[in-house]
Design brief:
This protein is an alpha+beta fold. Helices cover 25% and strands 45% of the residues. The structure holds zinc ion.
Amino acid sequence: MHFHNLPRATIAHVPMQRPPFYKACPEKVAGFNAGETRACAKKVEMVGENCWRCAAGHQSMQPLVRWQVSGINLYDATGELRIDVLGDEGNKLFGCQADQLAQVWDRQNEDPVALKSIEDFVTRVQFKRLAFRVKSKKEVWQDQEKTRRSLIECNPVSVEAEAKEMLAEVRETLGF
Ligand SMILES: [Zn+2]
């Protein structure tokens, strides 16, 4: 696994053909550190009225909603990159919670207000400029090796770092 930082990258495109979220298992399971708990967060399937089940067999009545978007296009000075966003870091990236979007998603075809909320979401996210930390992992899929990149963290662009970088570029161009 590799990690890389993109100190200044812009979101070029967020695919919205499919829901950018999934329903996740709320069952508390052991966390990554001893003594901590976290939500199981595996995908749940509806198995009855108000009854959902995940692959681990947990049953719940009220699933969580978590971000899951594949193929967000970013670009920066070095080129273009496609990343996946999964889980809570999406709250920071998109500026809202996945369940807020989920509430309007299913009504967008019949409710103009809901549709407007989705459009506003896209407008708000597209061309947003942030500092990204991304991990990449090679995977083999149908005999082809693919690199899957996913978001670990995003933060506001450091204005100071940006100014220093621009100044360095100017100096280089002018040769002093
Ligand atoms: Zn579960």
